Amino acid sequence: MRIFDLKQSEHERAGDLCLLAELFHPERIAPGVSCRYSLAHAIILAGEATIPHRLKASSEVYYILSGRGVMHIDDEVAEIGVGQLVYIPPGAVQWVENRGNEDLVFLAIVDPAWREEDEEVISDMLK
């Protein structure tokens, strides 16, 4: 039995500037596990936002655990909150704003599993 515990993971600033703890990755954290996806626990602090970015070959799903935010996917913008799931298709430019007073916390599932070479920060869209 393989059990992965958030308490044993550290959050670090990711390339898009959110705080990220990789909980499950079939190559790095769970070698030998037959699985296509990776899973991370993400936090966007109150008043912060991620940098516009895209995953060129992977889709991503965010499941919101706490807080509220504004999700941007290409030209679409929507408010998101607890209990909602957001699907982000491969190649879509995305970023999240936390305009609230509490942290926005979510799970991020990437399929196929996240790879650094797949992620592209879109610097010309920086605010």
Could you explain how this protein is built, in words?
The protein has 127 residues and is mainly β. The chain has one domain (12-116): Jelly Rolls, CATH 2.60.120.10. The chain is built from no helices and eleven strands. It has strands at 12-13, 19-24, 38-44, 53-55, 59-66, 68-73, 76-81, 85-88, 94-97, 104-111, 119-121. The strands form three sheets. Strands 1-2-3-10-5-8 form a six-stranded antiparallel β-sheet, with no helix packed on it. A three-stranded antiparallel β-sheet has the order 7-6-9, with no helix packed on it. It is globular, with a radius of gyration of 14 Å. The protein starts with 11 loop residues before the first strand and ends in a 6-residue tail after the last strand. The model has no long low-confidence stretch (mean pLDDT 92).
